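Team,

Forwarding the record for the chain on the shared tracking sheet. I've put the sequence and predicted structure together so nobody has to dig through attachments.
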Amino acid sequence: MTKSALMSSARPLTYTAPDGYLLAGHCWMHARAQAPVVIINPATSVVSRYYARFAAYLNLHGYHVMTYDYRGIGGSRHGSLRDLRAGWLDWGELDFEAALLEAKRRFPDSQVHAVGHSVGGVLIGLAPSNHLISRVFTMGAQHAYWPDYLGSQRWAMRLRWHVVMPALTKLFGYFPGKRLGWLEDTPAGVVQDWVAPAPDFVDTYLVSSEHRGFRGSRQLTLAQCDDLRRRFAQMTAPTLAFSITDDPYGTVPAIERLLANFSGSQTSHLRLAPDDIGVNQIGHFGFFHGRFEQTLWPIALHWLQHGQVKGPFRTHLVLT
């Protein structure tokens, strides 16, 4: 089935964030009203359409599924990005928060699960209502702390994402990723957050004499940073973090660095190599491609259904 056909089977979705910003996405409705609902958080500057096949797969196996675009991306882009002040904090505490509240409004009797790809897993910790979540699955979730990048690609990635990207953003007022074929066009605040150097995601925003190298999109006081840490800690849903050995972003240190923030959640880390399923390459984005419907997607499905890692892959759990 083509992606267009998959999208036509979903209902267009619009709702407003707490600050009034209009967000857009799609919803795959299940016949059973009380079926659980899964919210899919995209990676940085990836349009939600990319996850349509995976969303339809979950819907076929018993779920309502919501996908959506963050402000400034895809269907949630309104006007010039030069005029949009938005960073990862806004995507989490406003946009994902709005998705959570919309899921509870539409499906009041349903459990809410969350799937987070890359920064989408980080944003789960930022939503004030993340205590509503019953189960979490993440793929390659980390916050782009460059020393954690895969060693063989680290310096090339640092040049691309931490030198070229911010330089172009300064020139254009936003990152023109679409014309480069790298990402969607991206708000400047998101780029500022991406290139911020702090090993702790929250400390990226901390205003203090120890953080004079601050480059994030917003500056927060120590009390505000403590509040963000409490948000991460209040998310008590069991979490399975999935990572791939050929993902240059999702290395073991990167995955574990993020998981440490979810101190209230029982977390597990499942790490596979492409050879484990008989392929040569998966990478940071491959998991959501339809060719892995029979091999990788059942891992996520079984976790969302039962909170367990399925079958032989249990031996690949990383001890934390």
